[in-house]
Amino acid sequence: MNAIVTLSAHNPAFLPLVLLAVMIALGAIFGRLCEWIHIPSLTGFFLSGIVVGVYLLLTNQEGTYDSIKAVGSISLSIIMFELGTRLHFRKISHNLSEVLLIVLSQAVFTVGLVTLAFLLLGAPWEIGLLIGVIAMATSPETIMVLSRSYRSKGHLTDAIMPHIGMDDMIGVIIFSIVLAIATSVNGHTVVSTEVMILEPLFEIVGSILVGGAIGGVLALFIRISGKDVARKHQFYLMETVCAIILITALTQFHLKIGDVEFILSPILMPMFMGIVFTNLTSKAIRKENDVALDAFTPPFIMLFFALIGIQLVISVIGLSGSIWFLVLAV
């Protein structure tokens, strides 16, 4: 018996699997405690990651995070797919002017104010601009989970969902351009205007095309599976999870066309898979697919926020002073 336990402890997969189990257990406990004091359960999920992150730092095992972060990538794909399924073209067209006004106003003021704050603290302008673009991004995960938890509906919800999608799309474009500029300045290398334009363009267009194509294929398979009434929920879940894992895998590839190297967006690709899927299927099928997926996703959503907590703990180590506090606040 001792030999078996010792062998398991030395297995590279042992600690990552134990950490996942601990995060789910702590997330469930902390989430429930937060609900008792009328705080969203997401705060508890995040705190569970903080606890695990501190443990990893104290035991010098930060590298274990790399072994489990793939779970976070799958969770993000699930959340963005669910966001996409709530973006029906008919609803978007009714709120398009409002969405554009909100997104553009947010982008200008957020990027400007955060960049100015970093400049006043003596940070390099390119770093301030980069953090400003990051601050501009709206967190789709929190809004999506809270919307589903409280089953919110109405004009405000219909306006927020397309706002998140548009905001993330613009954020990806601006971030890619600013990152290229910041890399050029800090690395003393010259990045051509052509590369700065084509890199975000390839990323956006590629993500839309690939995500849309997979969403179309998923809609076709879901329609076929719906004919088997007895097991359709089972087929819905298997096919949707298969598409989500495939999408997640594709976002890990670095692609190169000529001198332009890029990746497919882990935000846009699953989101457009959901958009195409929801616009090619009936309302009844969409609801049944949501029911099937909702029974599978809670542990992944919990782990997603826990992994954010771990990443935060690991990433802020080494920063100091006012810039550390400002990055944490952003």
Word description of this protein:
It is a single chain. By secondary structure, this protein is mainly α. The protein has one domain (9-329): Na+/H+ antiporter like fold. Helix content is 80%, strand content 2%. The protein is built from 15 helices and two strands. It has helices at 2-10, 14-36, 41-58, 64-84, 89-94, 96-120, 125-136, 140-150, 155-187, 193-225, 232-250, 268-280, 283-294, 298-316, 321-329; strands at 254-257, 260-263.
Can I get a quick summary?
The protein is mainly α. It is 80% helix and 2% strand. It has one domain (9-329): Na+/H+ antiporter like fold.
The CATH architecture name reads: Up-down Bundle
What low-confidence regions span 5 or more consecutive residues with pLDDT below 50? Answer: 1-8
The largest beta-sheet arranges its strands as 1-2
Q: What Rg, in angstroms, do the CA atoms define?
A: 21 Å
Distance between the termini: 50 Å
Strand fraction: under 5%
Q: Please state the average pLDDT score.
A: 79
CATH topology: Na+/H+ antiporter like fold
Main beta sheet: 2 strands, antiparallel
